[in-house]
Specification:
Blueprint lengths: L1 H27 L11 E11 L3 E23 L6 E4 L5 E11 L11 E11 L4 E3 L3 E5 L7 E5 L2 E5 L4 H22 L7 E6 L2 H7 L5 H6 L4 E4 L4 E5 L5 H18 L8 H10 L7 H11 L16 H22 L1 H12 L4 H9 L3 H11 L35 H7 L23 H7 L26 H4 L2 H18 L1
């Protein structure tokens, strides 16, 4: 009885809830839900590389109603953020749309050989919408015809009769993955794309836009793009194996240690890259010995980025590799893997080293310094960085006439007034209406120091004696005229 009563009451309630749900769906649901994918047909869809300018997306589609919007979603390499762009076309039932996605600027550069995942979204005037299936496209350098050799997740693209060289590069990268992957705790199943160039000229035009001066003075043998999993290598270099091994370790290090809040510091990044190098050179060892003998060791763990001086850069690499060798030999590979994991969780470097190695960052560096016979590093005191106080300069009011105590008065006082000579004739000469330029200059000098009537106050405000003659009092007139002339000249220049 109670159950029947509950059921009879619930039935109209359930019906009311269903009606309310249908009403809300009709208000909030997007119009695409009421359309049909079958109403829109894709005739053809292509994407072509026009590197270094960009990549061109083209699509032909038709629908029962006019097609109003076509957009492309694309994702570059292993980046999690995607790009959404609209194609250009005139609305019609049958359209041909096109988009040139440019990559020839520093902010939008994409290295050649990168995997691009994309799909199209098409909407017509009736609300019908079609999302095409996701596809992959490899953004090759359009200047050459490419072939590939691969092993597992690694693929090396090459052009010309250099397949043997490409296989050597591939083998060096695979060896590095086998050693450094477990050491760092990095995922080695994610694809890594390598584009190999045969000479410096080819390589220069493939690198990101940069200073032409730097490009003329430096030769880039390899560059890793860690966020997309792509690597460029100069295959014709003598150190091509070591370069490929070094650069691919950068990709693994960032996979294992980067977090959403911070990246690993350069000394750890470069030290691990050289530690993983299967074909290292001896220049870094020489640089380290030179720095040790000349007291030029750098505070390596206190440097988040590489130094600017070329000699210091070589020393930096030598120190970083030696520091990583010490950390792995003294504390074991498990500690390095745990350090990467801790950093990837967002822990800062100081706390991570303290948690994993049980010492502070500076103490860890000094342990390494002790093993190579170097003096310990002592951080500079913060007091030494304070600026030296200086006295504030005394400001004076601007005046057209010299002020007492100034250099102008000193020079005036040093020049005595010439003594007037008696006139031979008794008839006085008439006073000239305009004093000559020479006389005006003489009038600017006060009388010689002697018996003077100081009068009230001792001196005038302009700094001249009060007992000056009538000709001396006219000193202010030419100065005022000179000031007004200068002011007028400034206004005319403006």
């Amino acid at each position: 009885m109670a159950l029947r009563s509950l059921t009879s009451r619930a039935t109209p309630l359930r019906a009311a809830l269903l009606l309310a749900a249908c009403f809300l769906a009709s208000v909030s649901a997007p119009s695409a839900l009421f359309g049909s994918e079958d109403a829109i047909t894709v005739i053809s869809a292509t994407v072509e590389s026009e590197f270094p300018i960009g990549m061109r997306f083209s699509i032909s589609a038709e629908s029962e109603d006019d097609i109003e919007e076509i957009a492309v979603r694309l994702r570059v390499g292993q980046q999690t953020r995607g790009v959404y762009e609209y194609l250009e076309f005139d609305s019609a039932a049958s359209v041909d749309a096109e988009l040139l996605w440019r990559t020839n600027s520093g902010s939008r550069y994409i290295p050649p050989g990168t995997i691009i995942k994309y799909n199209f979204e098409i909407t017509d005037g009736a609300g019908n919408r079609l999302d095409t299936e996701s596809a992959e496209f490899i953004y090759y350098d359009a200047r050459f015809s490419w072939e590939e050799v691969s092993d597992g997740p690694v693929a090396v693209a090459y052009h010309g009769p250099v397949e043997t060289r490409a296989k050597i590069i591939l083998d060096a990268i695979v060896q590095t993955l086998d050693v450094m992957g477990p050491l760092l705790g990095a995922d080695t199943s994610i694809p890594i794309r390598v584009t190999m160039y045969n000479n410096v000229k080819e390589m220069l035009e493939a690198l990101p836009p940069g200073s032409s001066t730097i490009r003329r003075e430096l030769i880039t043998e390899g560059q890793a793009f860690t966020s997309v999993g792509t690597l460029l290598v100069l295959g014709g270099g003598r150190s091509a194996m070591g370069t490929a091994s070094h650069e691919v370790t950068h990709i693994l290090t960032h996979r294992a240690g980067d977090s959403i809040v911070r990246n690993i510091p350069s000394w750890l990044d470069e030290g691990l890259a050289e530690y993983g190098n299967i074909d290292p050179g001896f220049s870094y060892d020489i640089a380290l010995e030179f720095a040790l003998g000349t007291d030029r060791l750098l505070p390596i763990t206190s440097m988040p980025i590489l130094p600017g001086d070329p000699e210091d850069v070589i020393i930096f690499y030598g120190q970083a590799r030696s520091m990583i060798q010490f950390m792995i030999a003294a504390y074991g590979p498990d500690s390095m893997r745990e350090l990467m994991k801790t950093l990837s969780e967002g822990t800062n470097m100081d706390d991570a080293i303290q948690d994993i190695y049980g010492v502070g960052r500076i103490d860890l560096e000094n342990q390494w310094r002790d093993t190579i016979g170097a003096p310990p590093y002592v951080p500079p005191s913060r007091d030494s960085a304070r600026p030296t106080p200086i006295s504030r300069p005394t400001l004076q009011l601007f005046s057209l006439t010299p002020q007492a105590g100034s250099e102008t008065i000193a020079s005036i006082e040093a020049t005595p007034t010439p003594t007037p000579q008696p006139v031979a004739t008794a008839t006085p000469s008439p006073a000239p209406t305009e004093p000559p330029a020479v006389a005006r200059g003489a009038e600017t000098s006060p009388p010689e120091t002697g018996e003077q009537d100081q009068g009230e106050g001792g001196s005038a405000a302009c700094g001249l004696p009060r007992n000056q003659s009538a000709s001396t009092k006219d000193l202010t007139l030419p100065l005022v005229a000179l000031g007004l002339a200068g002011l007028r000249l400034r206004r005319q220049r403006r």
